[in-house]
Design goal:
Layout lengths: L2 H14 L4 E5 L2 E5 L2 H7 L3 H9 L8 E5 L12 E2 L5 H13 L2 E6 L9 E16 L3 E11 L5 E3 L1 H5 L4 E2 L6 E3 L6 H18 L3 H20 L8 H13 L3 E14 L3
Helix pairs in contact: 7-8
Length: 262
């Protein structure tokens, strides 16, 4: 997951959860958390229990989040976000807890009597995890037009500047989709499979080499033992599990979006 993808995702997350963004540039966000969001991602359970027990005044935290540390100029007191970092994982978890699917409409300020038409899109954020003895994660935001099947990568980045709401604007109507969302997800799954196939998979061969190296070391220590003890089998199994190559695909969240032309 690239820094700009993290920045876009986190910015949208806080915006949709009514957390004011106090300051922002292309590699840093300063956010004022709500009480609910503080409880969800700040791990301050005892603080909130104590505050509620004394009926104290709540003081939700402010967060300074660095989405690209390579762009920093000077010292900045903040948390660096990257794929796999604890804070970003907490944000992903909060997304799942709050519901992973939304239905939203682009806000239209129509001044004329002519009705505005919105087109249905299905947007899905996928997380792909490559794991062995180390882990690499990637995030893909895909969108598919439910009228003509057009697919775009970077869907979340495409719509991030658009004003969206949960109700349709006056004098506006949306087209009924011709591609069912379940069928659309199947198409996007195929796109993700193709992205994985086109990716660099030298990490698999490198993991196999490390596996053979560690198994050779293990065999060296038991080379003169005719009947291998139980501990040998346990160690061998642990090594094989450590270097097992796994590709996992997760849907982080998604939604049905009715939009003006993209």
């Amino acid at each position: 997951m690239y820094p700009h993808q993290i920045h876009t995702y986190v910015r949208q997350f806080f915006k949709e959860n009514n957390c004011p963004i106090l300051y922002e540039n292309d590699h840093l966000l300063q956010v004022q958390l709500t009480i609910d969001m503080d409880k969800r991602i700040m791990n301050r359970l005892f603080y909130w229990k104590y505050l509620e027990s004394i009926n104290g005044e709540p003081n939700p935290a402010k967060l300074t989040l660095i989405t690209n540390k390579n762009r920093l100029v000077g010292a900045v007191d903040g948390e660096v976000l990257h794929f796999g970092s604890p804070r970003l994982n907490q944000i992903f978890q909060a997304t799942k807890e709050q519901g992973s699917f939304v239905q939203m409409y682009e806000t239209v300020n129509a001044q004329s009597e002519v009705k505005t038409i919105l087109t249905p899109w299905l947007g899905v954020n996928y997380k792909i995890t490559y794991s062995c003895d180390c882990t690499k994660e990637k995030l893909y935001s895909l969108g598919i037009n439910l009228m003509n099947g057009q697919v775009i990568d970077g869907f979340q980045e495409t719509i991030q500047q658009r004003e969206l709401g949960t109700s349709i604007s006056p004098n506006t109507f949306h087209l009924p989709y011709t591609i069912k969302p379940t069928r659309a997800i199947e198409r996007l799954d195929l796109v993700v499979d193709n992205l994985i196939q086109q990716d660099d998979h030298t990490w698999v061969e490198e993991a196999k080499k490390r596996l053979r190296r560690d198994l050779n070391v293990l065999d060296y220590f038991y080379n003169e033992v005719d009947e291998k003890p139980e501990c040998y089998e346990r160690e061998k199994k642990a090594i094989e599990e450590q270097y097992e190559t796994i590709i996992k695909i997760d849907i982080v969240n998604g939604g049905l979006f009715y939009l003006l032309p993209i």
